[in-house]
Specification:
Oligomer: single chain
Mean pLDDT: 94
Structural class: alpha/beta
Strand order of the largest sheet: 3-2-4-7-1-8-11-10-9
CATH class of the largest domain: Alpha Beta
Distance between the termini: 22 Å
């Protein structure tokens, strides 16, 4: 295990790609825009990058991205695809690579034009062609929402969680988004509005579901020596962990427990902190149930108590656990894989750059990615101390 005290690693630069609907860029040029900005924050250039970590963007992995950016001296490459959890996992991988001196400056990047290209469908390719899915596809379960609806229904049945409690998560995200000029949706939202929105897959309404947008970002992870070049305050990564469980929902060991139970334990263990020490959290919010179950699995509340925990504005501005502070995938942006943008926001919060939505006295933040149908998870703990 990497020792963050002995081998400190820092996020020295972050940036978003163009967001929303993007018609004047390709995914590769979007990454280039973000990478250049993130490197400028880090006080570095493309020539300094010797590690490239990219979640597959269609057909573009680390090789294609490296060539496009003119990075031909990479010593560490990684195109691990854990869906929305890939980028937190990439931080974990790059931490170990930097600690072992396998690279010094790692670029983690992603971009998607799923909205402008109309690239997202309700049925997955895997459902149509894999042998394993023959036991699920005939029942007409739409991917991915049907799977998350099944998880939500089980949580409700087992623990008494209500639609009103799930709706509180969407409302909290929207209240943060109203303070973020880059958020896709900023109009007021109430619990009643969420419950009145169209039922897409019982018990999940339209406003329980994330946006479909274009977007992405870039992050520079480096060692202490290179972090001294940073134009802005470097943020130290003190813990990271990852895990996976299943792909087909029929193989999920427990519908009410995600892979985050392991990734969170690993990340907090490495960091030497507990959820009580965390000032804000950026949970993956593909659906409202994703947030609720994540908070339980990471230990912010006990299993089954998530519904009560997220009530009464706890996650919203002024609440005791600020979460989704840029508006999350529910109101800010969701380009197919949100995990990188969670870390961009966490870094900005820890630098004190979030403006109207700044969390006061933020010292420790957590970003938690989720991929597939609660199939993968990766957690990163950061501090500005």
């Amino acid at each position: 295990m990497n020792n963050p005290e002995k081998n400190p690693v820092y996020i020295a630069g972050v940036a978003e790609t163009p967001l929303g609907e993007v018609y004047d860029h390709t995914e590769l040029s979007m990454v280039a825009v973000a990478a250049k900005e993130a490197l400028a924050e880090a006080g570095l250039t493309m020539k300094d990058v010797d590690g490239i970590l990219v979640n597959y963007m269609g057909e573009e992995g680390s090789v294609q991205v490296g060539e496009y950016l003119g990075i031909f001296n990479a010593r560490w490459t990684d195109s691990t695809d854990l869906g929305g959890a890939a980028f937190e996992a990439h931080v974990h991988h790059a931490m170990m690579a930097i600690a072992q001196e396998r690279c010094e400056v790692a670029l983690i990047a992603y971009a998607s034009r799923q909205r402008s290209l109309r690239g997202r469908t309700m049925a997955s390719r895997e459902q149509r062609v894999t042998i394993g899915s023959q036991f699920e596809a005939p029942y007409g379960l739409p991917f991915p929402i049907g799977y998350y609806a099944l998880i939500a229904a089980r949580h409700m049945h087992q623990y008494g969680t209500t639609s009103e409690q799930l709706a509180e998560i969407a409302v909290a995200a929207r209240r943060w988004a109203q303070m973020n000029p880059k958020a896709w949706r900023r109009e007021p939202l109430t619990v009643k509005d969420v419950l009145a929105s169209r039922m897409v897959c019982d018990p999940l309404h339209t406003l329980d579901c994330c946006l479909v947008t274009d977007g992405g970002g870039a992050l520079i992870l480096t060692d202490k020596e290179h972090a001294r070049n940073a134009v802005k305050k470097p943020i130290r990564v003190i813990g990271a962990g990852e895990s996976q469980t299943h792909w087909h929902i029929s193989q999920m060991p427990d519908l009410t427990v995600s892979a985050g139970a392991v990734s969170g334990r690993e990340a907090f263990g490495m960091a030497g902190v507990t959820p009580k020490d965390v000032d804000f959290v950026e949970p993956y919010d593909s659906f409202t149930i994703t947030v609720l179950q994540t908070l339980e699995d990471l230990g912010f509340c006990k299993k089954g108590e998530g519904g009560a925990f997220v009530s009464n504005g706890r996650l919203a501005p002024g609440g005791t656990l600020p979460a989704m502070t840029m508006g999350g995938g529910l109101s800010y942006n969701h380009p197919g894989a949100l995990g990188l943008l969670l870390m961009v926001e966490a870094v900005r919060q820890l630098r004190g750059e979030a403006g109207e939505r700044q969390v006061k006295n933020a010292k420790i933040g957590v970003a938690h990615g989720v991929g597939g149908v609660f199939s993968t998870a990766a957690t990163v703990v950061m501090t500005n101390d």
